[in-house]
Structures are given as structure tokens and as C-alpha cells.
Amino acid sequence: MSKRVGYIRVSSADQNTDRQLEGIELDKTFAEKISGKDIKRPALLAMLEFIREGDKVFVHELSRLGRSMIDLHQLVEHITKKGATISFLKEGLEFSPGQADPVRQAMFGMLSVFAQFERSLIKQRQAEGIAAAKAKGKHLGRPAKLTAVQREEISARVAAGEEIKTVAADFAVSRATVYNCITEAP
Question: Of the four listed, 25, 106, 173, 176, which is most buried by Cβ atoms within 10 Å?
């Protein structure tokens, strides 16, 4: 018996998946909150493993399946070669096994280029934001776990002969962090 399968993806944990595939009756849904930059995504891989001949896969829009033109083409080809149909609701595109509609293929090609272009713009904006923050002297990344005083104390204790594993345990840091404090000490 064929299944109606949904694939839902948003890029980050704070985004909401509710609007995707709303009102579509599905037998099984695969959802994840992860970047679409590559195809090594747990729910996507599980969905690809799950689908069988005759199944129909629903995706809200093309960019939810992937951001790379090559990845999108490979995924659609993989799904249709398994004998399943894939439907992109927002774009109104559907691909079935053995289907060779040149107009639909051209439209898919153009839309996949735009999905990849959008990903490139996101990366460019991100790089510009990072460069601007660095130029303003802002600290990027997670906050430092140790203060400058703590780092000096670690170096002094190790120099006084204490074992690195003891010092690391006292400050709740790894031995690698202790070694970094020692090499950074003046």
C-alpha cells in the first residue's frame, strides 16, 4: 500500500515548522531543524530509506529539500528511481517515475539555481556580518570559560609542580585547556 510521506525542514531550532504541509494528510512525516547545505541530514536520509515504489513525497517548497542545485537534482532523481513521486507544493511541481516533461524539468532547473543562489547570498551576508563584527572588535564564538586571572593561576600552579590533571579538575576544564594556558602565559 502506497504512503503519503511528508518532509519538513527549517534551518534552525528556533524556527517553526507548523506552516509547512499544513492541511496535507500524511501517513508519515520526517521533520528536522538543520541547514539544507548538504544532504547528510538524519530525517532526510531516513525518509529516503523509508519510501517505496508508489509512495508520494510532499515538500512545502524546493529550498526545504535542499539548497544546492546538484543535491536537489540528485534527490529528485533518487526518489523517482525508487518509484516514488515527489511534489513541491509552493512551486506546483511534481515529478513521477519515468516522467520526461521538458518544461517541468526546465522550471525545476531554474528554481534550483535560485535556491542555490539564495544559499550563496546567505553565506555572503554572514561573512560580511562577521567581518564587520571583527572590525568593531567584537568577540566571536562562545564566551571564554576562564578569566585572565584564572588562566594566570593555572599557569602558576603548573609551574609550581602541580599535576595538569589536578589543575584541570579544579577548574573544570580539559587538560588541553590547561596546556593552552601554559603556552599562552608570558
Answer: 173
Question: How would residue 186 be classed by pLDDT, with cut points 50, 70 and 90?
Answer: low
Of 2, 11, 68, 87, catalytic: 11
State the pTM of this model: 0.65
Q: Are 67 and 37 within 8 A, CB to CB?
A: yes
87 is catalytic: no
Sketch the domain layout of the chain as residue ranges.
Answer: 4-120, 134-186
DSSP for 31-100, written as a single string: EEES--SSS--HHHHHHHHH--TT-EEEESSHHHH-S-HHHHHHHHHHHHHTT-EEEETTTTEEE-TT--
C-alpha of 17 from chain center: 15
**11: which DSSP letter?**
S
Query: Could you report the per-residue pLDDT of 87-105, keeping only the tens digit for each?
Result: 999 998 899 887 777 677 7
Q: Does domain 134-186 have CATH number 1.10.10?
A: yes
